[in-house]
Amino acid sequence: MTRKLFGTDGIRGAANREPMTAETALRVGMGAGSYFIRGNHRHRVVIGKDTRLSGYLIEPALTAGFIAMGMDVFLVGPLPTPAVAMLTRSLRADVGVMISASHNPYGDNGIKLFSGDGFKLSDEVETEIERRIAGDLGSYLAGADGLGRARRIDDAVGRYVEHVKQTVPRGVSLEGLKVVVDCANGAAYRVAPEILWELGAEVIPVGVDPDGFNINRDCGSTHIETMRDQVLTYEAHIGLALDGDADRVLIVDETGALIDGDQMMALIASRWADEGRLAGAGVVATVMSNLGLERYLGQRGLALVRTPVGDRYVVEHMRSHGFNVGGEQSGHVILGEYSTTGDGLIAALQVLTAVVLAGRPASEVCRTFDPLPQVLKNVRFARGRPLSDKGVKSAIAAAQRRLKGTGRLLIRKSGTEPLIRVMAEGEDERLIDDVVSELVGVIEKAVA
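User: That's the sequence. What structure does it adopt?
Assistant: Structure tokens below.
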């Protein structure tokens, strides 16, 4: 069966347009509910969301679908995606749902599903759920006496706050650190400043006034200029920028220099290796991670294993091969000791802990390697299969010949937006910029 609903990170699209309509959300709840109803126990589902206006549309539709299947629904309101994964395990639920389109603008929304162990679903499970959604769900409906109930979990915020704080070693305080935290007007707008304050930091919050429309707007990890400006204005020691559902984070040091996911993974893996905590003798990252990271780890006798783009593929490899550090250059960092998915706050706290223990500025502690020049440009498309175009194929082959032995080229479709991403990396920045610009021009003509 060819999947039409599920992409690389759940279901995503424009709000109130297929597939992000109330009708489809209802059927997603019914299809997922029918799959996870096994046994005679009371079945539970945890549903969280970010701050988009359309969450008010999707949440009740999903709730109705799960209730129709006989599942009790626990509503936790706006909370980060990793909080939903954690609460799914903590509440012994059969399935967890996060309503979010992550870093996308407010006009989009999405549905991410977690199994009872807090991990995202496999392709096989998503395919089966999609098969049920497309079919006749009537035979799965609960009887009138078997319908589920819905209730709100009022202390969900507190549960997650304590969970995150426990990842910081006892005796480590953030007292004396001035921290800017940009919550993207998203899911972490309450919990992120609270966690940092409770750990002793002086907190300068940004993006903590969601109105349903301003999530990720000129703020958060997709617009780190806002956070960087605040770091420089207030002479903060470090700045953190989360995305809309807070499963990723980007950081800047006191000078405003970027610390991306690659630098975070290098820092954390190096520290954990020194402490004897690093499992798998390396790190799992994606094809997008910088070659500089691979070289740095190699110098330390550690491996870098690459997967396709998407945190779920990173997690799958980590689980199957015994790694506990992995992630993406974009700031999606997965620390297996603490979380089943990317958690921007937990990753940030590991970086802050390293800065505190070193007793030196973030600019000295967090830049572990010099990245190779990397150029990434996007091409938006609305029709057809542009990467199958003969002219595009020929241009890609020519670009690869130009880079042979000096760099690498990566072209892929985004799994969450109608974009083609063109990335080149190598020692010669002018060459890779030329290669990317020429390819982008060819692809733009193909999709025009």
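The chain has a mean pLDDT of 95.
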